[in-house]
Amino acid sequence: MRLSKMHLKTLREVPNEAEIPSHILLLRTGMIRKLVSGVYGFMPLGWRSIRKIEDIIRQEMDQAGGQEIHMSAVQPAELWEESGRWFAYGPELWRLKDRNGRDFCLGPTHEEIFTDIIRSDVSSYRQLPLNLYQIQTKYRDEARPRFGLMRSREFIMKDAYSFDRDQAGLDRSYEEMYAAYEKIFTRCGLTFRPVEADTGAIGGSNSHEFTALSEVGESEIAYCEKCQMAATVERAECVDAPASSAEELPLEEVHTPGTKTIEEVADFLGIGQDETIKALLFVTYDEEEKENGYVAAFVRGDRELNMTKLINALKIPEHSIEFADEEKMGAATGCVGGFTGPTRLHDCTIVVDSELPGLRNLCAGACKTDYHLKNVNYGRDYKADIITDIKTLKEGDPCPVCGAPIKHARGIEVGQVFKLGTKYSESMGATYKDENQKEQPIVMGCYGIGVTRTLAAVVEQHHDENGIIWPMSVAPYHAIITVMKPDDQTQADLAEHIYNELAAAGVEVLLDDRKERPGVKFKDADLLGIPVRITVGRGAADKTIEYKLRRDADKEEISADEGIARTIEIVNKEK
Ligand SMILES: [Zn+2]
């Protein structure tokens, strides 16, 4: 491809709304183009890289026994009502009506559609197992789209669904997909980590998230350097503090004026924050978005509440709970903002973290302005509706597996795999007849990869202050030939010769034959990040060129023939 003919518009300035490197660089290289907030189009170079990522995914999915299909992005509401997700998915589901008022959505995921196909097409155990996938545009009506392709409202995803006869079959399918994902992300040039994850709005029993490590990532992971433990912070289990054998002291009301926070009350009473109970107050909503109850959650004072664990404990969708108006909740339940404890509360769901019942003589709010209670003990002084782990595993906390101090890291979620089990097949009636002619629910798994987000993650991990540094495998082109003076016939002829030789050998090559100053061309070549750069300049008369890899600082003067040979070799090795 000749740059003089290519539709390419690079930007010198950093666009205002772009905050992170991938967003800035994908806009500056002209690879993506914003249409409206969270919705992007792809220009020639960007689309080539997207297609390379898709090709890698297709090859590995096919290798693992997947069969590609393509379903519509438009999905009828009826199927989502059957699975119970028309409500559960919440406001991120992009809903629309047709001219007759019938409800549809633009699919953020396709469990319902694939389950619907399978329930009509599969009837016998002989037809299982099966793995179907698609690479398709998905929609999520994000409240705050940001970071370019990282959190967008329209995005390209690969989603695969496995259908098995039983749990053992699902375990095998899951392992195959897990292994395929490791190959895919490795081939894309990503440094990543598979971590245990929450199943969220997709549901099911087990899940792993594939996280590309990056400081700008929105996924926070907890991991252990001593053992294999690695999980999203949302999911990571927490070790309870050891139970106390101290004697229960008498409950005592103490005057603690103005001490609204845990820090203030602990300082005031001269006790540790780990000797207090922290309260967090919520209101929940029903399907009509009407308030339908209050929730008080309690963790040890020095802990942090884990919202995902609380939502899972309550078995409600993420969007149906928010912080309560304390005054309103106080009138209904007896809580008092800043002075709420688990005693003296009524008419609300009390969720208590699993370690609190084992601890003795804690300090908690007295549900009375400017007062706390000392020596609060579970059983004697308060009871819970739910007792479970609702605390966050923090950096430095003991590893739940081996006890070593936990570390945190940030990353970009580029893929996630789920063991769905029979969640969808049971709610939607997808069954097969086993060897004994007995109806059994089909056991399902689902497996997603964010294609556009993977592109952004690659840029996050491969760039410098001058631009992108593409790994060969997903680079829009393998090599770029920069001609210093295209009007100089010797230079033009040599460049043309190299261009033809490389193209004939299967190298995807760009020829920068634009009538621009050399400085502009070099800047653009660095910005675009094409892995191999060959510069044809004054040495053309002696058939020498300058050879440079984008990832290295060194450049070398070598003969054109050697430059061609080296380029072909490195491209074949790394593409
Ligand atoms: Zn460990």
Automatic annotation (TrEMBL):
InterPro entries: aa-tRNA-synt_IIb (IPR002314), aa-tRNA-synth_II (IPR006195), aa-tRNA-synth_II/BPL/LPL (IPR045864), Anticodon-bd (IPR004154), Anticodon-bd_dom_sf (IPR036621), Pro-tRNA-ligase_IIa (IPR002316), Pro-tRNA-synth_IIa_bac-type (IPR004500), Pro-tRNA-Synthase_IIa_type1 (IPR023717). Its main location: cytoplasm. It is found in: Cytoplasm. One of its GO terms (molecular function) is proline-tRNA ligase activity. It catalyses: tRNA(Pro) + L-proline + ATP = L-prolyl-tRNA(Pro) + AMP + diphosphate. Residues 33-471 form the Aminoacyl-transfer RNA synthetases class-II family profile domain. Transmembrane segments: none annotated. Its EC number is 6.1.1.15. Keywords: Aminoacyl-tRNA synthetase, ATP-binding, Cytoplasm, Ligase, Nucleotide-binding, Protein biosynthesis. The keyword Transmembrane helix does not apply. Homodimer. Consists of three domains: the N-terminal catalytic domain, the editing domain and the C-terminal anticodon-binding domain. Belongs to the class-II aminoacyl-tRNA synthetase family. ProS type 1 subfamily. Catalyzes the attachment of proline to tRNA(Pro) in a two-step reaction: proline is first activated by ATP to form Pro-AMP and then transferred to the acceptor end of tRNA(Pro). As ProRS can inadvertently accommodate and process non-cognate amino acids such as alanine and cysteine, to avoid such errors it has two additional distinct editing activities against alanine. One activity is designated as 'pretransfer' editing and involves the tRNA(Pro)-independent hydrolysis of activated Ala-AMP. This is Proline--tRNA ligase. It comes from Anaerovorax odorimutans.
